[in-house]
Write a structure and sequence with these properties.
Number of strands: 8
Shape: globular
Radius of gyration: 17 Å
Largest sheet: 6 strands, mixed
Distance between the termini: 19 Å
Amino acid sequence: MAWHDSDDRRETTARLKNTRTFGSRRQLLNDPAQGCRLGGKVTTLLPFQRTCLEPFGKTSQIEPKRTTMLTIIQSWRYPVGDTTDNCNILCSLAQKAGWTLHLYASPTTGTKDDERTSGPDTNFPLLCAMATEDFVPGVARFAIVLDGLLLTARRQPRASEVRAVLDIAMAQQPGKVRVAIGEQRRAPFTAAMDAEVAAKKLAAIPTEPLTSRNRPLFWRMLSSISEDEIFTYSR
């Protein structure tokens, strides 16, 4: 399903034209580890970046911790589409091997500038996300920011898409999907920021592995109605 405010979505996409973005969902899912295609060029790690990470060597899965903050080497933004596409890309990233998906809730209110870049405040709070390629504990080689008009749990049927993302996330191994919980850990509106700045903002917010125990807490960050209640009322 598409957002009703299509003009807001087009304006949001236009404001992101000067930031690093992926051209397609396939590119996002297949190309990040080999470098990202930007304006016809392929960007890879700079020499000083490779040098500073060489002492760490190679590592496999990052051990999940209760909370973590990240250092990010390179960042990009995935331009959001309609809510069906946004839901599908989040589900795909949650299952992508070697990557961790971080989920956040935006503030419940915003300024007029926030509304111009993230849509009408009737959708706030919004779900926003960042996917990071695991490299060494505390360091992500690549980060993909997904923000703006992504998903909302304020009402049906939009809440079903958030639920679908969380259901897929719960089926992954512990620590594969992480969430920021607590009013002090709400993500700022980042859609107007450059991808690198947005990624740094999100990376500074502590997250913890999504579990059956904290899922209700994260849901309440996105909606004033509990997950069970919103689907009971909508029947």
